[in-house]
Amino acid sequence: MKRLFFFILFIAALYLAKPLWEEPVSRYVDISFLEPVDEKMASLLNKESVDTAIRYIADGADKAVFFLTSKSAEVQETVSEAKKPVLEKPVKTQLSIHNIELGSTEKQVTAELGKPKNRSMNEYGSEWLTYHNGYQNFVMVSFDEQKKVNAIYTNDDLISSTSDIKYGSSKTAVRETFGEPIKEIRKGLNIFVLQESEGFDVFQSEDAYTYVFYDLHQQSKVTAIQLIATTLEQKKTGIYAGGDAQLQEGFEQQLFDLTNAARVRHGYSILQWEGNVAETARNHSGDMADNDYFSHQNKQGKSPFDRMDDDNVTYRSAGENLAYGQSSSIFAHEGLMNSEGHRENILLDTYSHLGTGVAFNEKFQPYYTENFLLK
């Protein structure tokens, strides 16, 4: 009997210490099987969690700040209703991209898009396969273990829908079709509350999360779509993924590709990769992450141009974009496109080269740096 008592005491202590070990363990092991235990323990212990706030910031004249907050009261309420989620309006996955839907096979994707231009790690622990023709018809696709599509993204005019939602549709039309966007996403026992954003909506169905991005400089018209299978979204246990070298390189590659896809879509030339300035960009992201600041000017008072000169980067003119805290390169890019000064850098017709650099702080929050050059 005493052994049973100590065993129960040990399990309770292990549960209460979960915030200390959950995140590092989940980077190596899928611990979603513990969710039923979590729910039972939560109901028994009525455990209070500490509110956390995560800032999404785009630097510049216009600073956009979004919050995702974990709230204990909402955690308790959602756990009790977890098996019967309530949506204001049922949403079905009515969208396809270049005739590809979630669940399409790799063979179908190859028939539509050909061979991918590159592969890069994404925040879900899978790969984005990137397809385009000179950055026209730009699509990124992820496959599950059965080689079926479990995520897809485009910022091109490739969206089709049974309800006529497409590239350039209004936000009003999207919400009339899909209903009100969701305000929270549940990850295990955590509820991440999405503060209302003008730049994107998230809609949930049984099989998918639909992320709809809007161009605030074009009357909030649809500018990009991302579809994520529910099974893939729920594998990602938090807002941020582990910041390893593969994800770092993946975010850098994706940021470069997304920028060029946006330029081509708006009628501008493709930027060439510049390795020297990419190193400058990565070093600045790493410096911000390590020293807990967010600025074009570093702690030594050096500007982007000083740092480029120190690295022997040659250029006739240059510019820099920074972003911090967005959970993926897609969110970082879409946020920059909705910030006037950053958008101008991305769409400046005189630039010829680009280097991107990403680094993660100790909380795995990414810092993004883009350095543009005219050579």
Short description:
With 375 residues, the chain is α+β, with helices and mostly antiparallel strands.
Description:
It contains twelve helices and 17 strands. With 375 residues, it is an alpha+beta fold. The radius of gyration is 22 Å and the shape is globular.
Can you lay out the helices and strands and say which pair or pack?
Blueprint: H1 2-16, H2 18-26, H3 35-45, E1 52-58, E2 64-70, H4 72-80, E3 95-97, H5 106-113, E4 118-121, E5 127-133, E6 136-143, E7 149-154, E8 159-161, H6 171-178, E9 184-187, E10 190-194, E11 200-204, E12 208-215, E13 221-229, H7 230-235, H8 245-265, E14 272-273, H9 275-291, H10 304-310, E15 317-324, H11 329-337, H12 340-346, E16 353-360, E17 366-374
Parallel strand pairs: 14-16
Antiparallel strand pairs: 1-2, 1-15, 2-10, 3-8, 4-5, 5-6, 6-7, 7-13, 9-10, 11-12, 12-13, 15-17, 16-17
Helix pairs in contact: 8-11
Indicate the percent of residues in helices: 25-40%
- Order of strands side by side in the largest beta sheet? 9-10-2-1-15-17-16-14
> Can you summarize the main beta sheet?
8 strands, mixed
Rg for CA atoms: 22 Å
Number of β-strand runs: 17
Overall average pLDDT: 80
The percentage of residues in β strands lies in: 25-35%
- The secondary-structure class comes to alpha+beta
Task: Write the H/E string, N to C.
Answer: HHHEEHEHEEEEEHEEEEEHHEHHEHHEE
Essential attributes:
375 residues; alpha+beta; eight-stranded mixed β-sheet; seven-stranded antiparallel β-sheet; 12 helices; 17 strands; 34% helix
